[in-house]
Automatic annotation (TrEMBL):
Keywords: Ubiquinone
Alphabetical list of PANTHER family matching this protein: TRANS-ACONITATE 2-METHYLTRANSFERASE-RELATED
The keyword Zinc-finger is annotated on this UniProt entry: no
Presence of the UniProt keyword DNA-binding in the record: no
InterPro entries recorded: SAM-dependent_MTases_sf (IPR029063)
Source organism: Methylobacterium hispanicum
Source species, domain of life: Bacteria
Record protein name field: Ubiquinone biosynthesis O-methyltransferase, mitochondrial
């Protein structure tokens, strides 16, 4: 993620066939959690539309913002002046002008849809604004200022400061632009600005006077920019005496002064009315926005219908809380219907793989011998490699053999826990390895030089020859954004390794909601090969190879769940306490069956090797 002012494109014009190329400018300055929720909705509804970020908050927060929101944006521009929040609220047009001057001119777009951070957009932008013509502007709530001056705060005649600002701006229009027409206003929540308007806006060098809600639409009039006034995007302003009683057909924008309850949003959306809601400052439920419009749950991966419900339970720790999963009829992906707000509570203390690796490998002889075994496992012919390693050691490391690490030494492990796998690689002689995990208590630097940071992938600069996610991808709320972030950090010829459970497996089909790797609610997505192919294609990858590596857990763990025995129960087969649940013959049979399923491509987990296209 580039957070400076560098170029990202040449601004060249491509052949235009069906309306302007839309891009989003997401303008924000605080509340990163709410911004993340808004961005995920924008991304879900507009998967092929660039989303650029304009951060106008404190410069001291810029690095943290980039790390937290970087994967959700195609580009992030940080406004470089430290100004107080009141100034930025009044003069957001200055921030937009700076963005266009320093960044926007180099990017490819025809019409910029400016979305303020707290807006909830419930329809695809192409549906809302696809009828615009190139060079045409659209302002939500475009009205003559005289119609709203007696109640609209920015023009309140009873506020002397507002009157001074208005008069100064009108003098500027007359003296510098030769415009003596009326002032125009808009809600300035979601507006469409053509490139020619921002070019003129930057050249005009407008002073810090007036308020952006009437500056931008009035200057568009002064510049002679065509403004779409017959567009069906007619807002309903709760405070506007002329429109608060508007018929349902006109309530495409619902602007109110307090949080809107979820049931109101769902009612508006289901009736085909609510296109944009403002403000809605709570975390919006993690379901596709189109769900609210059609009454049909849509797959977050392919947008296909996902109407089949599965009632799962939390069984790892035995809480048995219920969670609904949806199955996509197009790509087969299973996904949790609503991500619980207290998701972190379902990761118990024993879940994370954190430990003191330096203490575990304190013996120099042990370190040396272990490092040699790891190197042998990764470099020797397979038969020899298996002979010098044990099963627990082999399972994650075997997936690295296909990466040709001799040619790809720069490695990033995302969601690495304490960094055990990287520690092993470091012992075996791979020095250019690092890890990130947002759930680490703090950054860790080991005695052998390995660094593991408490961070998201957005904080990793790269480039890397290998980026790997071992049983992490299924936990992530935005898999497409993650793969795009991976793609942007891979060196030429680099590979992405995903190891994850698969819903298109015999175990899932046999055991259903008792399948041990469904793991509600921690696993947000249970992918199939088809859903991964779609994600890979949309993020600039192709699946080069798949290696199935399931094992007997898929059977004994699922059998336990059928018997209502949690994985972490004292009598679980995992711990071997009390009377044995399964006979040695059953375990051997399940192990043999796992080997056969892997060969058939029907095991319940696999390693996917993605290469950039």
């Amino acid at each position: 993620m580039d957070v400076t002012g560098g170029d990202r494109g040449d601004g060249a014009e491509d052949p235009q066939t069906d309306g302007p190329r839309l891009a989003v400018l997401f303008w924000f300055y605080h509340e990163p959690e709410i911004c993340a929720a808004r961005l995920r909705h924008l991304r879900a509804l507009n998967p092929d539309t660039p989303i650029y970020g304009l951060f106008g908050g404190s410069l001291s927060d810029a690095a943290a913002i980039a790390a937290q929101l970087g994967t959700l944006l195609d580009d992030l521009y940080v406004y470089g002046e430290e100004r107080d929040p009141v100034w930025k609220h009044r003069h957001g047009d200055q921030l937009i002008a700076a963005w266009h001057r320093d960044r926007g001119r180099q990017l490819v777009w025809d019409t910029l849809v400016v979305v303020q951070w707290d807006m909830l957009v419930l329809r695809p932008l192409a549906e809302l604004f696809g009828s615009l013509r190139t060079g045409e502007a659209l302002f939500s709530g475009f009205r003559p200022a005289a119609e709203v001056a007696d109640w609209w705060g920015w023009l309140n005649p009873r506020n002397p400061e507002r009157v001074v600002d208005r008069n100064a701006f009108q003098n500027y229009l007359r003296d510098r632009q030769g415009y003596e027409g009326p002032l125009w206003c808009c809600l300035f929540i979601v507006v469409c600005l053509p490139r020619i308007f921002l070019d003129r806006y930057v050249e005009a060098g407008h002073p810090e006077i007036g308020f952006l809600e009437y500056k931008i639409p009035t200057l568009a009039r002064a510049f002679g920019i065509p403004i779409r006034e017959d567009h069906p995007f007619k807002p309903w302003w709760a405070a506007d005496p002329q429109t608060k009683g508007a018929p349902d057909s006109d309530r495409l924008l619902n602007a109110v002064g307090a949080d809107v309850p979820r049931e109101i949003i769902e009612a508006e959306g289901a009736a085909g009315r609510g296109a944009i809601i403002h403000p809605f400052r709570q975390h919006f439920p993690s379901v596709p926005a189109r769900t609210l419009l059609e009454g049909v749950f849509r797959c977050r991966v392919c947008d296909g219908p996902a109407e089949t419900r599965h009632a799962a339970r939390e069984m790892m720790f035995g809480r048995r809380d219920p969670f609904t999963y949806r199955e996509c009829s197009a790509c087969g992906c299973l996904q949790i219907e609503t991500v619980p707000e207290n998701l972190a509570d379902y990761y118990g203390e024993g879940y994370y793989s954190f430990g003191d690796l330096d203490a575990e490998f304190a013996d120099p002889a042990l370190r040396g011998a272990y490092g040699e075994r790891v190197r042998a496992l990764l470099t020797l012919p397979e038969a020899e490699a298996l002979a010098v390693s044990h099963a627990d050691m082999r399972r994650p490391l075997l997936s690295l053999r296909r990466l040709d690490l001799a040619r790809r030494p720069r490695i990033l492990d995302v969601g690495c826990g304490s960094g055990r796998l990287l520690y092993q690689l470091r012992l075996a002689g791979w020095d250019a390895v690092e890890g990130v995990d947002p759930f680490l208590p703090q950054d860790v630097v080991y005695a052998n030089g390995l660094e593991v940071r408490r961070a998201e992938i957005g904080a990793a600069a790269g480039p890397y020859d290998v980026i790997m996610l071992h049983h992490v991808f299924e936990h992530l709320p935005d898999p497409l954004a993650t793969l795009r972030a991976v793609r942007g950090r891979l060196a030429p010829g680099g590979l992405c390794l995903l190891r994850l459970p698969l819903a298109d497996s015999e175990a899932c089909e046999t055991y259903g909601v008792d399948w041990v790797q469904l793991d509600a609610p921690r696993h947000l997505f249970l992918h199939t090969k088809a859903s991964l192919e779609r994600l890979a294609e949309r993020s600039g990858f192709r699946i080069a190879e798949v290696a199935y590596d399931s094992y007997d857990l898929q059977f004994w763990g699922s059998e336990q769940y059928r018997r209502d025995i949690p994985l972490f129960d004292p009598c679980s087969y995992r711990w071997g306490q009390g009377a044995p649940l399964f006979t040695p013959e059953e375990i051997d049979r399940w192990r043999d069956r796992s080997v056969a399923l892997n060969a058939e491509g029907r095991g319940d987990q696999a390693a996917f090797y993605l290469e950039a296209v």
